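Let's do one together. I've listed all components of the complex below, 847 residues spread over two lines.
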Amino acid sequence: MKQTVQKLFGFLGRPFETGGKLEKLHPLYEAVETVFLWPDRVTAVSPQVRDQLDLKRFMSFVILALIPPAVYGIWNTGYQSRLASGLSLDTAGALWTGLLIFVPMLIVSYAAGLFWEVVFAAVRKHPVSEGFLVTGLLFPLTLPPTTPLWMVAAGISFGVVIGKEVFGGTGRNILNPALTARAFLFFAYPGQMSGDVWVRIIGEPGPAADAVTGATPLALAPTLAAGTRFEPALHEAGFSFSTLLWGGYPGSIGATSALMCLIGGIFLVLTGIANFRTIVGGIAGVLGTGYLIYFSADPSASPWYSLNPFYHLVMGGFAFGLVYMATDPVTAPGMERVRYLYGFLIGALTVLIRVYNPAFPEGVMLAILFMNIFAPLLDQLEISIRNRRRIPNV
Amino acid sequence: MISIHLKKGYDLNVAGKPSRELKHLPSPDQVALLPDKLPFVKTRLIVKTGDRVQIGSVLFEDKANPGVRFLSPGGGEVIDIRYGPRRVIEAVVIRLDSNEDHREFPAIPENRIADVPREKLLAALVDGGVWPLIRELPFRNIPRPGAEMPPAVIVSLSSKEPFQPIPNLYFRDKADLLVYGTRVLRRLAKRVIVSIADRDADLLAGKGLGEAPDCFPIRFRGHYPAGDPGVLLYRTKRTSKENRSWFIHGQDLLLLAGLLRDGVFPTERTVSVGGTASPVRGHFRTRIGAPLAHLLSGAEPNGDIRYVQGGLLSGYAASGKGHLGLYETALTLIPEGGERELFGFIRPGFHKPSYSRAFLSVFHTAPFARNCNTHGEERACINCGYCAHVCPVDILPQYTMKALRADEIEEALALGLLDCVECGLCTYVCPSKIELYQILKNAKASYYQEMNR
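Okay, and this is what the predicted structure of the assembly comes out as:
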């Protein structure tokens, strides 16, 4: 088996070698080849032995952790779509419909993103970084199912080029590329991204016509009269706590189910790929800020003021953002203690944006991007405290 | 006895442990000194090919550190002076006579150590060629013989690195030299700290080391590199004055004590040989600079094998035709591992050891076979923080590396660059396969060169 694959790649790789016709595309070939055949590089300098963990495995674990929300999201997308179209609601059919909606978006996301990755890798003569595999999957999961494919391509191009490559590629970016991509679409095409269109109708062409109105729980608040209590209104609209936790409602493809994100998050924390400090801080931030508002603000002024803060954890994309975006090691602080603070501020900002800024119904995206900017400052804070405690050695 | 527990660091759990048997090897037919493996030494050769030498004749001296000389570990004829790239001297090889001559040095009886003036003691160590066995933190260079009295000298008896000789074995029939040696060291520094692993601590029982007011035996527990003198200093120092402490390894102390007590340049070493690819695994008593093949007692390892001198993490790769370095007391043989693996990165990995928890090997407690594969390609730093987590002296290797790449030396120093004990763990755990150890070590070395220009 291994010999066969090795021979195959030996044959396929010839045009990509130095002097070959496709020499410039060597990073692309190398990226594919090393997925199948782990490199045979041996240590040239001390230490003589190395750990088995590499970036490929590191990143593929994030992809593994994305499977629960992705599979659930595919089913949910199909289910909501069939529900709105009046078709049968069996699981297999829902999954199939969901796949028909999601897979084209995923392919476009990977293809457009990989195109830019390879362009930059070829120009820089760098290998293609594995980080893109995560970005390319994360991004479509944060989109509404009604997003047209050209918009997926435009978004991921912006995310990869402006969010990452202009800074020097993976490891050097300031902002999370997938979120940058989403923020780009959010501000460039607010109609499609933050409007009320979240469900695709099957069989009808055109993006605008094939969507039905279905308010997301976050979009519900501004529609309520002052003085209404939020929770009963949510229940009335079909969003009980357990529905929000499970995620069986229209929304971004992968981000509706807090429960699935929790499963993925536990996996990431147990394997040590994601840092639990950010997640703990984020939950504390939401609950802390939520309770502060709950106990101090006059509930008759806005429906948000009377909301049990636990709802914030399960509504919208908070769980998804916290588990998969905020824990991105590149854009989060590297120091351990300020990671609590970083997470806390993400949670707090999410709640504040949701409650006090009706223009942006979803706060988590902006909260994470905002805190991404502050991550180096937080690091600097902890490092300078640490350095001061050190006995100098010069 | 003071007890210290090091919580950071990491134990490698490598298969191929040497047995606890001590075997005496017959005399090899040649020995060598390896000048380019000596820290910051600029070699000036005294002998040339064809010269006759005795045990204890001067082979070369250090241009950068006047007075420091390196003596022949064997008596016979200099048969080869091997040069490497840029004419660096790699080895001075001596073919041993069957009846070796040796130079006489003045001996100092144990009860007279306290009466000899310190300058005379220093001169005896320098003339006797054992001075290079003492080294100075943080650069691990050979101290200047005329340097001021250091705040402390740390005697490091055990190492947690796989596979270093067990103190109980290298001290066998030499235990009295330990007491003699510490008496000498107490004349050289203000304090003597004798560190030993918890598991070996019975070696110090009844030696009365702690009775002297300036001698502090310390037992330590914890992961590699808990036994390193740099780690010990970092954990115990109170002021920055202690940074320039000296240290000496247990076996080197035996040599130093042996020279002064007996008046003969000592040549004996206890070497542990291990590793999954090694045909023999055990402890061997042999000569300084013995050929590596001699340590394997003539058995030929087969396959693509790497010879590692001095430990898998902090040691270096050597040729199978090479010789034992002056400071090195361990030889580990492991396969090169230069094969490609199908879907290597996504296998469950029950047999793939990792510092992370991303492999099923977290449930595997038996020792792992190792090879020299890097298990991945070099990538940009993603700031995962594994290196900072494992660093025994709380450096942030990832930020230090970035500071150094930006030429921000001040910042790197503030982060603790000079506290680096060169354990190699940061590089070992790095998933981006960045050579953090080399970057930090090279930065330290150039800082040393800059300061001693």
